[in-house]
Amino acid sequence: MSILFLCLSSSLLVIAFGIDSRGDQSLPPLSPEDRLVFSEDFEAQRSLERFSQAEPDLGHKAGSPETAAWRVLDGKLHAQEVHNAALWMKTALPEGDVRVSFVATALTEEGDVKCEFLGDGIHHQSGYILINGGWKNTVRAIARQDEHGEDRHDDYRCQRTPRKKCIPANKPQVWVIERRGQRIDWYIDGVFTLSYRDHNFINGRYFGFNNWSAHTQFDDLKVYKLASR
């Protein structure tokens, strides 16, 4: 009876939190066959030359009179008042299985850190969108071509309460995003966070940083071509 109860409880947690059931919840180590193909540490202003800025959402502007939407400062990439004018890598991601890792920091209590994965390199919501702290720090999710879509995978551990936020302010977090076959796995600080399994997989080739209005920061971007496993 106790074993059955535990199995049922685990299943309910998976359903309630929108988390794929997986045996190993920790980030798998890179293998000797996995290969680093791109890295950027944002130590120089010319780092931005490796990226292209998209257009903001209709009716909005990217940046403000006081600051650009995207800027490199003290070895970090800063984003503010971006309004979905994503900063896309000009270099295409490798075909097949791939890992993207970077350090992300919300610089305000508003949270609002996100990125675009496997998009077309031009348009917001052309691939998958990973969001941590969206909607005033209440949403953590992976969305497919629509942040508001019904097929969005949410982590409901982010509750709409003043006491529980999705992402703490001023605390760097290491994001790792992997594409393996038709599944996307997301890890934060080495711990499995969410998966998105898609039988109509979007084979976009580009990665981009993004946000809406809050001040956020990115660093240490790395892209790996993953060997088949």
List keywords for this structure.
229 residues; mainly beta; 15 strands
Mean pLDDT: 90
Sheet-strand content, in percent, reads 35-45%
| CA(first)-CA(last) distance | 37 Å
Summarize the helix and strand pattern as letters: HEEEEEEEEHEEEEEEE
Oligomer: single chain
The percent range for helix content is under 10%
Characterize the main sheet.
Answer: 8 strands, antiparallel
Query: In the residues, how many domains can be counted?
Result: 1
Shape: globular
How many beta-strand segments? 15
Radius of gyration in whole Å, from Cα?
18 Å
CATH topology heading = Jelly Rolls
CATH homologous superfamily identity: Exo-inulinase, domain 1
The residue ranges in which pLDDT falls below 50 over 5 or more consecutive positions are 1-19
Number of helical stretches of at least 4 residues: 2
CATH architecture: Sandwich
Supply the CATH class.
Mainly Beta
Which structural class best describes the helix and strand composition? mainly beta
